[in-house]
Here is the input.
Amino acid sequence: MSRRIAIDLNRVEGDLELDVEIQDGRVVDAWCKGVLYRGFEQILIGRDALDPLAITPRICGICGTAHLYTAVLALENAFNISVPDNGKRIRNVCLLAEEILSDCRQTFLMFTPDLCHEKYAGVEGFDQVVSEFKEISGQAYRDAVKQSKKIVEIVAIFGGQWPHSSYMVPGGVTTPVNTRNLHDALNVLDGYTNWFEKRVIGDDLENWMAMDKAADYLQWCEENPDNIASLFTRFGRLLGLQDYAQGSQNHLSYGYLPDGENNSLLRTGGYIRQGDVDNQQSFDHLKITEDLSHAWFNDELAKPLHPYDGVTQPNYSEGGKAYSWAKAPRYDDQVVQTGALSSLLNSGDGLMRDFAKAEGSNAWLRQFARIRRQAGSLLMVRKLLNDLLAHEHQPFIENQPLGQDGEGFGTIEAARGCLGHWVKIRDGKIAHYQVVTPTAWNASPRDAQERRGHWEESLIGVPIADENDPLEIGHVIRSHDPCLVCTVHVMGNDKRLWFGK
Here is the structure.
């Protein structure tokens, strides 16, 4: 069954097409095409320095909290503005609630329904998979609709609304901390946690998160089959999802959730090169560049530029090398992947690292990371809310004026990976604004060295059982939680067809 998801995200949103070349039943080449230009960076030029707090949450209908958080961090960085601990806690609670929403919906509404395809009818466990994961009628599907709608109420409790909230401002948040809204948030959290423990993992969060060896977890799944995580693990691995879609083995995570006076991160970031999780490098935003060689933008300097220097001037033309409205971000001149898996690997999750050492990144592990991350995030939200209760009467905002001139950046982990905003302000107005989104990293086109983007590379070698119904391509792309309308053009034996969500 065909599905189409329309979620707007800067530069590559609306429509993205993949041209895929198939030979002898396998993908041999791929081109990722962002075919819609939006231009939020241009919209912001000349506006008041505070306008990004209202405009950038509209970049994405499901990641508005992430964009708001990143935008306010950029302003605070530009003018050296501090935030009281309660302001940080409320921001982190809301970001994690939005992340849990995304991880839940992506897993059970976007990815697992494909496991119910009739081609898998002979695989052990198929009937149970259909009972849980089938669109509309599956129990896990129906639960996810209900539970994801509830968890994001936490954002509305503190932010007044969701999506498109604007409650974060330089120096903190606009919502005061009080016992009522904290207990309301805890009640919402209790409801989601009870469902997640009973239905999704079949265990207490602490016990489940304590597993740090791949072999132990797989054995646990065999001994505890009556939960959704075990079902997904057993069935997905019987399909061989762990055997393909590795793509770039360079994992980038900015880290996020600043805490305390020194702004240490509750989830640390970093850079893992070529899958070597034992030799993690620290993250440095100055190593980020954007290549325009295959994008429909003016590239007068013909070299990759850091976002502080990057230019977003559309220049569409047919023919030539350009084939996408997406730029090609690179870190330390390397193609990278980002997302839940990269975040957990860089923040030291033992179970994810053990799987990655044995199998590399792959479609199954990338998707499983979103179940794993929810468990850890639920524990974090509870601790943050309890900390707020314990420090209820401490300030949540410190009013500090913006300067007239400055430049700064904000980087966090959105649900789909690395998100960064870079801003330059002159005479109180925005002179320069650049946004680099998670899907820009993953769905980038080729660069000047003709190196494929991560999605393009992750498709190479993927086996296609039926060229008229390339379900495997759907598994690969959806495992990245693409925040876009994704349509795949398949070209093989002179055939061209549409396969989309």
Observations:
- The two ends are 8 Å apart (CA to CA).
- Residues 363-390 form the longest helix (28 residues).
- The longest strand covers residues 417-426.
